[in-house]
Amino acid sequence: MHVHAHPDDESSKGAASTAKYVAEGVDVHVVTCTGGERGSILNPQFKHPGIEDNPELITEIRREEMDRAREILGVTQDWLGFVDSGWPEGDPKPPLPEGCFGLVSVEDAAEPLVRLIRSFKPHVLTTYDENGGVPAPRPHHVPPDQRPCVRGRSRSDPLSRLGEPWQVSKLYYHLGWLGPHGSHRAGHGTSRSREPVRGAVQGLERKPEDEARLTTRVECAEYFPVRDAALLAHATQIDPEGWFFAVPHEVQAEAWPTEDYQLVDSKVETSIPETDLFAGLR
Question: What fold does the segment set 2-179+208-249+258-266 form as a domain?
Fold first, then answer.
């Protein structure tokens, strides 16, 4: 089970390893916390009749994009139903919009997620680190203090009405954003001359302290085309002419053929470093 903030995260974080596990017969379920209602149209090539006169169409459009991405990845998916918090800008930043996910209490936010976990019964769960899986914390990504709610049962279960408690065996953080760091490293570290790509990805490489947290590299270069197809399904968010697609797959596969994770909690014996999210569970 992947827990993501809004539609497109399932395609920009861990999508190639998702496709790999689906191809191996693993059931993969995506939980999307918000509908991305306050997302901007980031693709300058995106055209949709009526969107300028009716900005609220973005909610419907992003759900349709998620439908396409879900089919491409071969996953099942549920919406938690919370409203996107947006990305407040300014100094000081304005208050979050009333009723948005960033203002929902931990208890209210946890309830539908706990219900889904107890229904799907995942052995492995992935989510974001304390920064929300992106370089700068964003309020619409899952707040860190919600994570204990998915780690397992407590002695007293205030959510007993949501079904029989389920113990997730392994909890991971994604250590990648905007797709695997393969395209970032490919832009910097290959022997081929790709100055425009190097310039475009300047500053996007993982920090040394994040590198030290890495425990698990899943080889999945074979599925980079699936990842890209799922990304492109989110046409409001992804520019097909953008820098991410400037690095050929063979270069990415040479430079960084993995998607990377940090094992945060495990109830089974495993050996670090890992090459499989299911190490110790096979």
Answer: Rossmann fold (3.40.50)
Gap between the terminal Cα atoms of the chain: 17
Q: What is the pTM of this model?
A: 0.83
CA-to-CA dists, residue 207 to 175, 176, 187, 203, 252, angstroms = 11, 11, 16, 9, 19
Contacts of 52 by beta carbon, 8 Å cutoff, 6+ apart:
none
User: Are β-strands 2-4 and 29-34 bridged in parallel, bridged antiparallel, or unpaired?
Assistant: parallel
Give the integer Cα–Cα distance in Å for 72 and 9.
Answer: 14
- Which residue ranges make up each domain of the chain? 2-179+208-249+258-266
pLDDT exceeds 70 at position 150: no
pLDDT in tens, 81-119: 999 888 777 888 888 888 889 999 988 999 999 999 999
The CA-atom distances, in angstroms, between 256 and each of 10, 79, 103, 183, 224 are 20, 32, 38, 8, 11
Dist. CA 263–CA 226, nearest whole Å: 25
